[in-house]
Design a protein that fits this description.
Glutaredoxin; 2 domains; binds glutathione
């Protein structure tokens, strides 16, 4: 096990599929990490002290750097521990594209499918009715105008996509894009993992035997080695250690260093994060913000999938 410095601090919760994607990646890379459990719904004061308003799960903290969205977190973990690669050279383009498809298309079939009444009853077994009502209201507000498919539509889409995946494995390959794993495997695995957590509806996976064998191979990577950390301790680390990742605003991209800007996810949970632009490339947006409890932090987002605007002073994007 390699212990990088600064510590990798994953802010996540057990039932989050995108967190499972990262936990498996941490496992495949044999990394050690610190584990902060975040609330499953708003309010999330300790999350927002670090992110400035981004509420999605998971995010990764290194000292006073806060990295949002698993797409960017994967790039960072690859830099921390290049082997085994998430983007093996011969399949890097395909791996990124299949991961993006899985994070969007497959995920938005798998989640509504799993959340049909029998699946939701299993996932939330034992939860009091007030929790269920609050959770439903939180997600409805978070998804805003995003159209969610009906159970029938999600089931049809899911079966089609599972068949595609099964056929991808038809030649007996070990992983989706060949003999070595890539980011595509982890992005696909998170949705299957979520369905499997709901036994009353998990039978949908039964016909796809190569896919089930493949899932076991991916799950066997495990989660690496983690130790628990409180959110207060994570805030103290940010405050004491400050931002350390190199940042620079590249010229020619339409923005200048020092500008006050807003960043928001383009798809859902589009709460805007405000800050001073300190880094911009075609791949990454980095903001500096000062927080009472976290101190001066840099918050990083992938460029693709996020809207970047000069700050207009409005409360919401
Ligand atoms: N594109 C984001 C999507 C993350 C996402 O949708 N996460 C879900 C949980 S798996 C979420 O944020 N749910 C609401 C919440 O946790 O408050 C990523 O790759 O990190």
């Amino acid at each position: 096990m390699k212990t990088p410095h600064p510590h990798l601090i994953l802010h996540h919760y057990p039932g989050s599929p995108f967190s499972e994607k990262l936990r498996l990646i941490l496992g495949s890379k044999g990394l050690s990490w610190l584990s902060v459990t975040v609330p499953v719904m708003l309010p999330k004061p300790d999350v927002q002290a670090l992110t400035g308003g981004y509420r999605r799960t998971p995010f990764l903290q290194l000292a006073g750097d806060v990295v949002c969205d698993t797409a960017l977190i994967c790039e960072l973990l690859e830099a921390v521990q290049p082997e085994p690669s998430l983007f093996p050279a011969a399949i890097a383009g395909q791996a990124r594209m299949q991961a993006q498809w899985a994070d969007r298309e497959l995920f938005w079939a798998a989640v509504p499918y799993t959340m049909q009444p029998a699946g939701a009853a299993a996932i939330f077994a034992g939860a009091p009715p007030e929790f269920l009502a609050a959770f439903a209201a939180d997600r409805a507000a978070m998804l805003g105008g995003m159209k969610r498919p009906s159970v029938a539509d999600a089931t049809a889409a899911l079966r089609t996509q599972l068949q595609w995946l099964e056929s991808q494995l038809a030649d007996g390959r070990r992983f989706l894009l060949g003999e070595v794993s890539s980011v595509a495997d982890f992005s696909v695995a998170q949705s299957l993992w979520y369905i499997r957590r709901a036994p009353p509806v998990a039978g949908v996976l039964a016909p796809y035997s190569r896919l089930n064998d493949w899932f076991e191979r991916v799950a066997a990577f495990g989660h690496g080695r983690s130790e628990k950390l409180s959110s207060e301790a994570a805030l103290a680390i940010a405050r004491e250690q400050g931002p350390q990742l190199p940042v620079a605003v590249q010229p020619g991209l339409g923005f200048e260093a020092g500008q006050t800007v807003q960043v928001a996810a383009s798809d859902y949970a589009s709460d805007a994060v405000r800050g001073e632009l300190v880094g911009l490339t075609e791949e990454r947006i980095s903001l500096a913000r000062l927080d009472e409890r976290a101190g001066r932090v840099h918050v990083h987002f992938p460029r693709m999938g996020y809207s970047l605007r000069k700050d207009t002073g409005d409360a919401k994007s």
